[in-house]
# Entry
Amino acid sequence: MAVQQQPEAVTSERATSPVAGQVLAAVRVVTGLVFLWAFLDKAFGLGYSTPGSGAWIDGGSPTEGFLGNVAVGPLESTFHSWAGDAWADWLFMLGLLGIGLALVLGVALRLAALGTTVMMALMWIAEWPPAKHLSDGSPSMSSNPLIDYHVIYAAVAVALAVTHAGNTWGLARTWTRLPFVRDHRTLQ
# Structure
């Protein structure tokens, strides 16, 4: 009886072609910069989505405007009660910073994917795309009842983690060799 040879295991280094690795790395960095920009704008009031007077460092709340203006969905009153709370501000800002840094640097992509998915799921629920009308009866202007940019960001973060997108143009190889990270695979 002939012994069947097992196919060679695919390693993280060989999971994608070099060009695909570069494309994934570019998507990773650009996506990370989206989160870092949101953090910087809310922290320092750069005048884009956050006016200078609303800067977090000057006492503004990064969650008050968004959560305070939730106008539809099953958690509308819950989000209103969270708006402007210090714990919500800190979690949101740490999430933006952590996700942004992880994606730009290419480290801890599993945690970044989890954090992105949780954050985007909460934001999706806050905007509640399935609704055709807001609580006041006005049209919601939802363009798709299921898939919006929140779902896309979460899917991208998961794809980046499972394809080891931090190996190209990132610090993933160095990061995964750290003893603490090697001993705690969820940090990879």
